[in-house]
Amino acid sequence: MSIGAAFQETFDFLKANWTQMLLWVGGAVVLLALLGYLMLGSTFQMMAMSAGDPSAMMGALGRIFLFAIVAAVILYAASMLIWRSGLHPGEAPNFGWALQAGPAFAFGMFVVFIAAYIVMMIVMFILALIFGAAFAGAGGFSPSAFQAGTIGGGAIAVMILFYIAVIVFFLWIVGRLSVAGPVMADRLTRNPVTGIAESWRMTGASQWTIVGFYVLVGILSLVYGFVVGLIFGGIMGAAASGGSGAGAVISMIVMALVVYVPQLLLSFAMPIGIYRAIAPRASGDVFA
């Protein structure tokens, strides 16, 4: 896979499916807003009023936790419908499968990342023992040692390198699991193990290219958000200084739509773009 191929497949998918993606995402957001109103209602106000009542506080937190689970089910089901409809256009939506496959995919990814976090913590503990003993024995953590050119500077450099390694490690995990969802959608399976195992196999030859693709998209997204934020920030500032509250609200809504909606759609399209770039014949020529 090349980064250029991943970009091409991603934007081909967006171009062919952006209206349907908006439909599924918009429907999920409206449904969640309705369910949030029905399930939560005045929960936050009740939490503020019952700060001294542990049972009432636990009840309110339980309702919030339940709503979070329902929201995850709906959002992941929407993502499965987006991937399935994009890979197999014209097929009737399979809501029953999506409501099962979406949460199963989310749970599988959660387990994998928890396992990766535990491994990272074990490695961190071992390295802390090794380097802590070495630097402490050499006076590396004394106040004077943190000046430039001393052993403390070396300790800081090691910590910085370690945190960079942690970021790279999790980006690598994301890259290796990037097509697990599209695999489940393409094969119409509810088994997250199938998606995760197949994603691990398929991304083996292009794992660092995928990491580079994610990093490049992240940088471009930051630049896009910064530029659009500057433009709409000026508009919102002018509206606020003019005393138009409605204008400021409208500007904020438009800014959210212009900044966050494209990035949300891009986040749905990237796994499909990678999937199509590494397995171009896996699901036929479906983006035409």
From TrEMBL:
DNA-binding is among the record's keywords: no
Transmembrane regions listed in the UniProt entry: 21-40, 60-83, 104-131, 151-174, 211-240, 246-266
Keyword terms: Membrane, Transmembrane, Transmembrane helix
Protein name from the UniProt record: Glycerophosphoryl diester phosphodiesterase membrane domain-containing protein
Organism: Sphingopyxis macrogoltabida
